[in-house]
Amino acid sequence: MGRSKKIPLRKCVVTKEMKAKQQLIRVVRNKEGEVFVDETGKMNGRGAYVSKDLDIIEKAKSQDILSRQLNTKVDEMIYEELKRFAGDKG
């Protein structure tokens, strides 16, 4: 009987689908109100997950979804950083 490890699922804030954490990038707002791309997925603060997909990141940007999710203005730079992560899938 093989013990299969439970895959942690998170919801993409753009598509609303549940995906494995590996397929998502976490964006976090700390209590100072600063927003970061959280590579480790372990930073403290309010997190939102976005799929590692350039189209979905574009949609998040055009609809300003992350700003609404995190209740703060999300900088252009955050979206650029997300696109970099989505670009190098390797």
TrEMBL record:
<dbReference type="InterPro" id="IPR035931">
    <property type="entry name" value="YlxR-like_sf"/>
</dbReference>
<dbReference type="InterPro" id="IPR007393">
    <property type="entry name" value="YlxR_dom"/>
</dbReference>
<dbReference type="InterPro" id="IPR037465">
    <property type="entry name" value="YlxR"/>
</dbReference>
<protein>
    <submittedName>
        <fullName>RNase P modulator RnpM</fullName>
    </submittedName>
</protein>
<feature type="domain" description="YlxR">
    <location>
        <begin position="10"/>
        <end position="83"/>
    </location>
</feature>
<dbReference type="Pfam" id="PF04296">
    <property type="entry name" value="YlxR"/>
</dbReference>
